[in-house]
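Running low. Any example?
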Amino acid sequence: MTWNPDKPYHPPHYYDDNRFYFITARTFNRHKIWQCDAAKRVFVTQLRAAIRHHGISLTAWAILHEHHHLLLYADKRSQLVPFIRRLHSTSAIQINRRNHTPGRKVWYNYWDYCPRDDHDFYRVFNYIHIQPIKHGILPMPGGLSSNSDGTYITSAGGMPELHELLARYEFTSYRYYARKHGVEAMSNVWLDYPIPRSWEGDVS
């Protein structure tokens, strides 16, 4: 296929039953439509409604200023596209209503990826939760650094600081897991599954 610079890139999507999917979507022209907390709460409300409506199991999520990440499980491949369409349609309608911008294009495209194994799954899990730090919404904690191979590495001594920092951010699923499993369990996940700094799934 010849590349045409006048046509936006739309990656193919391949779906199967009983699979985890890592979904990434960004806003049109990277506009920071979801920058304020009130806007992010609009998105979270629509995300919860779409999850209930389509029977999707949501494992991890994050909403940032101009994109979102979701790690979810679909029993039937037929669930996925209607779920994404509903989420993007209803969140766009609601945020445009709030901002008095009817008809504004909100979402540009989405990318999907299926984790290959447990190791891949937990790297995605950690990657989603580090988003507020990666994009400068939260400061880089002292215990977190970048290795020569481009992975984020965290010392065991730096885990309490990282945990406390991520738990402040309302708009990921990290708080839920931190409360449910505790600092030690979350620390083990971070230490055992380093996160690639330049993850290809990040479109922002």
